[in-house]
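re: ur question from earlier - yeah i can do the single chain one, its not a big deal. heres the input i used so u can compare w yours
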Amino acid sequence: MFLYLLRRVLLIIPALFGLLVLTFVMLRVVPTDPAAALAGENSTVEQIEAIRKSYGFDQPMYVQFWVYLKQVLTGDFGTSLYTNRPVADDVFLFLPATIELTFVALVFASVSGVLIGTLAAVWHNSLFDHTVRIVTVAGLAVASFWFAILLQMLFAMQLDWLPLRGRLSTGMPAPPGISGFYLIDSLVTGNFRIFGDALWHILMPAFTLSLGGLATIARFTRSAVLDTMQKEFVTYETAAGYPRWRVVAIYVLRNSLVTPVTQIGLLFGALISSAVAVEAIYDWPGIGSYMVQAIFTSDYKSILAVTLIVGVIYAIVNLVVDLVHALIDPRVSEQM
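and the output i got, formated as tokens:
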């Protein structure tokens, strides 16, 4: 297991380096001058050239990349052209909100998707199974921003059950910044009133974000469970008189989780990218909103930092997924 873990960790390093190189090159070849964007619309050519020189934009691309690489290795992502603050401070200010939203959405999608997919497979070709197939196709086809607006109109504006936007109610103080995750920080400090308010605010955006992932996990779980139920050992366990729920919960589900777990790991990165539209609609103060502003202002240092940090998080999640694979099926670690 240790060698398997070591191999997976070593594979992360070239992947992250390639991500950094690719993003850096793509941002430098786009027809946008960050010096001109920083100088403003009414700036002169001399002012633009002075800014280009002071920020090193006049240097060859490989020199700029080497300077930036040394900064990244020391934890220095430079200064944001948009906020004039260190990019690292901006990222770690906005990132916890997005991670919290993504994690809640992923947990909901995983638990609900595995449960729904398993029940659809057990009740194969039943009304429930047909309904699940129709709903999951619709869930994959529905645009998140359109679904978010519908939820806002129904649950916030018509029924007044859930808050329309924001991370906390107006006047509600944020919990002490231990981790940046309001749900965790409020629980750790015993502020159950803040916890309830934060949970109430995250329900609708998290459900919106989880819809596509839920549909994907449910479909893959259904297919995997159906395939496992055709195996000989399932027929043997059933013939031996084991209760159906025990056969499914203990034997079938464990042998069917490899594919859904893979999808859960892949969905994490997809949910972070999808959070941009959801954060904009629900006024969620996350890294997606920050990234949009960075793109509009050609703040390439912020874009690079966000891309790299999200890549690191995505790599860690996939590493955890690989370890779960090895725990579910020990043959995985033996083959790689």
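The CA atoms of residues 105 and 209 lie 6 Å apart. not sure if urs matches, ping me
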